[in-house]
Design goal:
single chain; about 500 residues; alpha+beta; ten-stranded mixed beta sheet; two-stranded antiparallel ribbon; 12 helices; about 40% helix
């Protein structure tokens, strides 16, 4: 569901262990950085190690588990082929020594199966040298071994005197299994080894990490080099865990009881309760990039507010409770406006939608993931959200990176946003990156009832993918009705507490 202000709580960190005893290295579970006031601080962040991520990770300079398994598969190839060759000799009832001398010393492609074992040995040695010792990740060595094996097997089938070397059952099995094993190695290399190691490198970065002599990290050594980090570091550099962000805000570090300080400051201008982790320190001025983000956020808010209050809206659908969705064309695109009443003050609803985004999936089932990847100031941040599949999987998972900015405009609390690119969250595998145009939530006060607000949602989204936009447009109005129903459920739960 393409809303731009919602989120969901980070999943709880559950320590995991694995049969091959690969654990998250210390340098990947802690970030050490130079604090503003001098000295180094350590911020721990939960990284849930999936089996795939562990399999592709090189720990302490050693070979990754998935690469080790590939070499074990090549070892199995030569051992199994050699064993089957010996069995093929024994079932003939001939003397083993004489047959070995005949097939090895007096080798002929027409009568000996020794060459199948030699081909397996060649595949093993070639893979061991280039993928074990040289640690290559290129496809050319496996291409050479596979192409050579297939060419040899074709020649073997054509030249071998099958009718003169009975029984032929085991000989046929030897040729067929050589074909299957060499292709199995190719498939494993291409579908498992390379993707898993590449994903691990994208997350951890390509710089090799080595444990020191004592096996512990030096607390005074920055462990993530700025120029060598991967996706994890890009996330840190754009999130509240990085000094460029966390050092500018009143976000507490770890406390003795592992709880965060959730004190709130009330804005003198708007009366909004702003969590301290969103309050910027006065002695930390905005960077040029942050100033640009704020400027873009203000422009998005102005554009969305103007569209929201423009004329020529056409009624799309109205429910019995007077909730209604209207549509209009803006710059050649259809945009949607939801209007309905919610039993909560405008200020409280803004606090819920903007500052408590990590709680949204507890009440909004259309979201499966959302997080703040960079706070700018108490009015602006950058968030990431993932929407659930829809239509039984017909509409696949979509994700969005949104710049959000809120302000009080003409007495209404307005939270606006739109899609941007951010280095901490590049396009993700198996997720379609959607785009949100300037949209907003507007919470207007209702005269005579401070605990009621007129809620409006301006939606301008492009879900991308292959589904025609006309089909998506028909579903968006229903999604908006569902969303305001979820908000009312959430408000009811908050009121009870």
């Amino acid at each position: 569901h393409p809303s731009q202000s919602q989120g969901h709580p980070h999943p709880p960190f559950i320590p995991q262990t694995y049969p091959h005893s690969t654990h998250l290295p210390a340098h990947l579970s802690h970030l050490h950085y130079n604090g503003v006031g001098g000295g180094y601080r350590s911020q721990q962040f939960p990284v849930i190690m999936t089996d795939d991520l562990v399999s592709g990770t090189q720990h302490g300079g050693r070979m990754s588990p998935v690469r080790r398994f590939f070499l074990l598969l090549c070892t199995f190839d030569i051992l199994f082929t050699s064993l089957l060759w010996i069995i093929a000799i024994l079932v003939t009832g001939r003397d083993l020594t004489n047959e070995l001398h005949k097939q090895v010393v007096e080798y002929s492609i027409h009568s000996s199966m020794f060459d199948c074992a030699v081909a397996a040995a060649g595949r093993f040695l070639f893979s061991l040298v280039f993928y074990g010792f040289f640690h290559l990740s290129h496809w050319w060595p496996i291409t050479v071994t596979t192409t050579s094996t297939i060419a040899f097997l074709i020649a073997k089938v054509l030249e071998y005197k099958w009718h003169q070397n009975e029984p032929i059952t085991y000989n046929v099995m030897l040729v067929l299994l050589s074909f299957i094993l060499c292709w199995g190695e190719v498939w494993f290399f291409d579908l498992r080894l390379i993707p898993l190691e590449r994903k691990a490198n994208e997350i951890w970065g390509t710089q090799p990490h080595k444990d020191n002599v004592e096996g512990e990290s030096d607390e005074r050594t920055p462990l993530l080099a700025p120029s060598e980090g991967g996706m994890l570091q890009r996330f840190i550099e754009g999130s509240t865990l990085y000094e460029g962000s966390v050092g500018n805000f009143y976000s507490p570090f770890e406390t003795p009881d592992n709880t965060d300080d959730e004190d709130e400051d009330i804005s003198e201008d708007s009366g909004v309760k702003i969590p301290r982790k969103f309050k910027r320190k006065k002695d930390h001025p905005l960077t040029e990039q942050e100033e640009e983000y704020i400027k873009v956020g203000e422009e998005m808010l102005a554009a969305a507010w103007h569209t929201l209050n423009s004329t020529d809206w056409k009624l799309e659908k109205q429910l019995d409770n007077m909730d209604r969705v209207q549509v209009k064309q803006v710059n050649g695109k259809k945009v949607f406006k939801l209007t309905g009443y919610v039993n909560i003050s405008p200020r409280q609803l803004l606090e819920e939608l903007f500052y408590k985004i990590e709680q949204a999936p507890t009440w909004n089932p259309t979201l499966v993931d959302c997080r703040t990847i960079q706070p700018i100031d108490e009015h602006t941040d950058i968030s990431y959200q993932v929407c659930a599949e829809a239509g039984g999987g017909v509409v696949s998972t979509r994700d969005f990176v949104n710049l959000r900015h809120w302000a009080v405009v003409e007495g209404a609390y307005v939270s606006a946003g739109g899609s941007i690119t951010h280095p901490a969250m590049p396009p993700q595998h198996k997720k379609v990156r959607g785009e949100n145009g300037p949209g907003c939530f507007a919470m207007r006060p209702v005269e005579g009832d401070p605990d009621l607000c007129l809620f409006q949602w301006l939606l301008d989204t492009d879900l991308k993918g292959w589904i025609p936009q006309s089909v998506i447009d028909k579903a968006l109005s229903g999604a908006q009705f569902d969303y305001i129903a979820h908000i009312r459920t959430r408000v009811g739960c908050v009121a009870e507490t």
